[in-house]
Amino acid sequence: MRWNMEGALSMKGGPLKMSMFAKYTGLIVALFIPIGIVFAYANNVANRVIGTEMRASNISQLSFLSSQIDSRINQTMDFVFTFSKDPNVQKFNGLGVWDDQYDRMQTKYMLQEKMELQSGIVTIWPVEFTVYSQVHKEAVTNSSTDAPYDEDYLARNLSGNWIYDDQATAMGEAKAFRWLYTDSFGHQNKLTGSNLVVQASFGRENIQNMLDTYKEGGQGDPLFYYKGRAPIPNRTSSAKLVTEVRSYLDGLSLGETMQQTIRLDGDSYLVSLVKSPLLGGYLVDIAPLDQVLGPISSSRNLFYLSMLLLFLFGTFISVLLYRDVQRPIVKLIGGLKRVQRGDFSARIDAKANGEFTFLFYRFNDMSRQIESLIENVLKERMRAQEATMKQLQAQINPHFLYNCLGYMINMAQMKENDAVVAMGYNLSAYYRYITRMEKETASLAEEIKLIVNYLDIQKLRNGRIHYTIDVPEEMLAQQVPRLMLQPLVENAVIHGVGKSFASGEIRIRGEMSDGLCRIFVDDDGPGMDPERQALLNQRLTGPLEEDMGAGLWNTNQRIVHCFGTRSSLHFTQSELGGVRSEIVWEMPKPAS
């Protein structure tokens, strides 16, 4: 039987080193981790490629828009160059005296007609032209408002570059881009006193028209920006976004082109910037990265959600396997281990599914049969041990009796009548108790009385012996096996006090706590070394050996059989210096 049990569990818990639940969950994780890593890498590559393409596309589109604006400005400037050489323009600024009023009006009308014709060629890019005659201090324009001649205005704006006025001028001019041209020999772009000045101007609406057209073909939010000045946004832009981007750009040192990724209000934006060579400003495109990359992010999140659902589903399957397979196996292995440790009362809850129910029933039957067999064998061994004990007592007690009778004879010869009476009284009480075999148990109070009789007898024979007994009153009513304490006290007297002429104290103490009763028997004898003490405690729990005293082993077996596996007898080092014998037993629960 012992061989079969060890063979069945020879793996020593090996199947539990890694449970099936842990294995399947680990396999699921091992499967999902590389998939997640590969997908994350692919998603990162896609985001990087799309981001790179988006950056290149934005710069390319902004450069194309800048070239379109520059193309229209160049057309305007070419017209100004050509228009300044027109005979009627020269006539308007001529040095001669006008022929008559009609001719003067006719010349102005022809100039306005040409300027109107040029301005109306492209409706998206209307331009206002003005011709200033320094000779006659007069101006003619195709604007809806008259253009007065202002020498200071001409001197201030005649720089040869396009100028953006974002403030209304004293002349009532609206926000506009202006370019003034004059070409006097040796004094280009300077007023010499007889110059003809031609001005081309267009409003910010022209830029907005181009920005609106650009926005219709993309996902960005374009604007035209001068550092430190209010930008020109497209007509459908967000004022808040434009303000935040302007504040951001004002703090940077700008080059010819630039791209930055910034976060505004929790959203990511790609800011692309290209400088316009003719206007000196910057075309800026604000592209919302979250919106552009939104489909990719949605696809990524959907994939991760699918992975999570698959993982949860796989975990659910593992949980089912754990509940229906592993947990029954763990119960079965636990039951087998309990049987291997000698607990033949082990039973397995038969609430299981399928084949495990049959296994549990068969295990319970096997355990029940083994328990019954072990109990029968144990009872037979106990009967044999009791017979051996009775035989030993029959051999020992007469010797003990002879010694006591010899003591009484000696005391009688010495006329010590009190010692003879005391010995006779204790001896009769002692033998009256040990010869009563009708009951297997007695109260702890009766056991204590027996110990007092025994120790008084030993004290009369050996004057060095003195003892103390301290047991709580509520503990004295406990029912214990008969002669449970006598072998321990006898062991303390013979192997403790009897082996040293300097010792003689025996202390018996009881306590109750945590549902357990404890009795301590201490002596101040020479004690035992730790190895011998550990060996004695180990042999108490094993089978009876031939070279081992039967009294202590039998006492431990009777305690365990009477009170359960939480009860025991074991030996430790005493605080008196000798050996402490400790009996622990579980208090019986009161009947309900």
UniProtKB/TrEMBL annotation:
Membrane-spanning intervals of the chain: 21-42, 302-322
Record's subcellular location: Cell membrane
Keyword field: Cell membrane, Kinase, Membrane, Phosphoprotein, Transferase, Transmembrane, Transmembrane helix
Entry-linked InterPro entries: Bact_2-comp_sensor_kinase, HAMP_dom, HATPase_C_sf, HATPase_dom, Sig_transdc_His_kin_internal
Molecular functions per Gene Ontology: kinase activity
Record flagged with keyword Iron: no
Main localization of the protein described in the UniProt heading: membrane
CDD domains: HAMP (cd06225)
Domain HAMP positions: 323-375
Topology with respect to the bilayer: Multi-pass membrane protein
Pfam families: HAMP (PF00672), HATPase_c (PF02518), His_kinase (PF06580)
Recorded coiled-coil stretches: none
Keyword Kinase applies: yes
Protein name as catalogued: Histidine kinase
Species, as recorded: Cohnella hashimotonis
Top-level taxonomy: Bacteria, Bacillati, Bacillota, Bacilli, Bacillales
